[in-house]
TrEMBL record:
InterPro entries: AB_hydrolase_1, AB_hydrolase_fold, MES/HNL. Residues 4-231 form the AB hydrolase-1 domain. GO terms for molecular function: methyl indole-3-acetate esterase activity; methyl jasmonate esterase activity; methyl salicylate esterase activity. One of its GO terms (biological process) is jasmonic acid metabolic process. This is Pimeloyl-ACP methyl ester carboxylesterase. SUPFAM superfamilies: alpha/beta-Hydrolases. Gene3D superfamilies: alpha/beta hydrolase.
């Protein structure tokens, strides 16, 4: 059985994995989730957060996990997972990028944003506070297009603004670190934020040894948790 460490994406927290966690545990796997700094119920002031803080939190979770875990990054946390792989290449069995930004050396999340997506005109930056957010009326179009009303209501109540500094910072990657960790990618066909063509373009630049496909939006953990858990299970076998 596999130990999965699940990294949530921007705006979200460990709460978003609750259905996938149950599915994976029912299959006999061990699952670790946690809030990145200034996300979920974490009380770290968002103005104090850096990409290095995200990566350090991921590394701490990897260090605490049993055996050699599989690190899963969703969306923004593709960059975080890559940074953790750079720092912990000997501790990870694999990394999985779940409809995630998949970087090359020096890329930030903002560098990797696709043009002409549902985020266009729906990403609001508070320069004074250093936070980015998606207006509530746009959340479903951006993130939850195929989620049922109960999951949408849950997400609306729990998302938080995203600190701008971490998503504006490039990640340093090398062949001896990041490059040594096996990579898999789980693509989502109905993602309006990272469209399928863009997911595939990032894999052209940074290939993955295994690719799985889920018919879901940008939030497959809520829209299709059973299929997502099955895809993660298959993707872990890289």
């Amino acid at each position: 059985m596999t130990t999965f460490v699940l990294l949530h994406g921007a705006y979200h927290g460990a709460w978003c994995w609750y259905r996938v966690r149950a599915e994976l545990e029912a299959r006999g796997h061990t699952v670790e989730t946690f809030d990145l700094p200034a996300h979920g119920v974490d009380t770290t002031p968002p103005g104090d957060i850096s990409l290095a803080d995200y990566v350090e939190a991921a590394c701490e979770a990897v260090d605490a996990a049993a055996g050699d875990p599989v690190l899963v990054g969703h969306s923004m946390s593709g960059v975080v997972a890559a940074g953790a792989a750079e720092r912990r290449p000997n501790a990870l069995a694999a990394t999985i990028y779940l409809t995630a930004y998949l970087p090359t050396d020096g890329d930030s999340m903002l560098d990797l944003r696709a043009p002409d997506t549902a985020l266009d005109g729906n990403f609001v930056v508070d320069e004074e506070r250093g936070l980015g957010s998606v207006p509530e009326e746009a959340l479903d179009d951006v993130f939850y297009g195929e989620c049922d009303p109960a999951e949408r209501a849950l997400a609306h109540s729990l998302v938080r603004p995203e600190p701008m500094a971490p998503i504006s910072t490039g990640v340093s990657l090398t062949a001896d670190g990041f490059g040594r960790v096996p990579r898999a990618y789980v693509e989502c066909t109905a993602d309006a934020t990272i469209p399928l063509a863009h997911q595939r373009a990032m894999r052209e630049a940074t290939p993955a040894e295994r690719v799985e496909t889920v018919d879901a939006d940008h939030s497959p953990f809520l829209a299709a948790p059973t299929a997502t858990a099955a895809a993660l299970e298959r993707a872990a076998d890289v």
